[in-house]
Amino acid sequence: MHKVDIAIVGGGMAGLTLAAALSGSDLDVALISREPLAQSVPETPMLRVSAINEANREALSALGVWQYLPEERVSPYTHMHVWDKDSFGHIRFDHEQMQRAQLGHIIENQVLVNALAERVAQQNNVTVLQSGIEKVLWGDHETMVMLQNDDVVACKLVVGADGANSYVRKQVGFPITFRDYGHTAIVATIETSQPHAQTARQVFTPTGPLALLPLKDPHLCSIVWSQDTPEAERLLQLDDEAFAHALTAATNSEVGTITLKSERKSFPLTMRYARQWASEGAVIIGDAAHTIHPLAGQGANLGMQDALALADLLRQLEQQNKPFARLRYLRPFERARKAEAMKMVSAMDGFKLLFEGDNPLKKMVRGIGLVTTDNIPALKQKLISQAMGF
After folding, report:
1. Where is the FAD-binding domain (predicted)?
2. Do 192 and 219 touch, CB atoms closer than 8 A?
3. For residues 266 and 209, what is the distance between their CA atoms, to the nearest angstrom?
4. Tens of pLDDT along 133-154?
5. Taking CA 133 as the corner, what is the angle to CA 117 and CA 154, rounded to the nearest 5 degrees?
6. What span, in angstroms and rounded, lies between the C-alpha atoms of 270 and 250?
């Protein structure tokens, strides 16, 4: 049996960030993951990537995680270009406006998980347990987590960081609001005939947004093409050459001719928002608490901020010798992070509503809005500052 203060269920970005952020505290942590934390990565870029904002980069650097990221797998972007397909509306951002070396970094999800796992492995207050969960026995002051490998974890607080279909969330009974976005996201790696110039690009088409995320190679990008599900299914049925041609047309050839360099994968997009995040002895973070449309690339950042905020609160409560697993002390975290998540959910809903379809009036409103914003430096700076997590 392992007797700890906190059991983190889930070895993804949110769970590992929480464990790393508790380094140096007097809190003993068990991190439970069904799969091995660190996994080998191929030489070619993996399909699932995240745009890590500057606020989280600073946090990861302070936690000693950034140093474990291989430089050749970390792709800074210095510019952003967003435009409306077949419209005059567009907006550009660059790092000099923010007096920063870059606006953010594109990192493969598994590469970041590997770096977090390597950092956590150096901590003497974290025990990593690889197993699924058989059941959880909730108690007033102590909870027993029964693992499928017959091990047992006794803890004061269970943290559900176990993804969109969270076992912890279901076991605690936190209600959830969800809605099908009606979009399917297609991810792939592409090669462009013109260099991407460290520019993250996003074009809004009538059937959904397309993001081009620059990778380390100046001619490689990762794409997230979120389309109405019928259109996504049509695109997935195209051969590689026809699919690449459709990409070139969608981007107005801004990066030249596009060639597909990987397989294509797809997944449906669903909004999820837990209406309760904390109870006596339990709390959820990351995708267990919320999933949003990827059009702004903020899902991973939101989950990492959940983890950092929870770590700050737990450290404070531990230093004050207060019962950190009690709901009354978890409430400030729940209120603050639920508010941030709801703002992001609402913003994504607003963007999707505004930018979908090709109604002439909506296109005019979008065009005027983008051009006006592009010409108001203070407004542009506020928008990019929020995107960078500040």
Report:
1. 3-320
2. yes
3. 14
4. 999 999 888 999 999 999 999 9
5. 85
6. 24
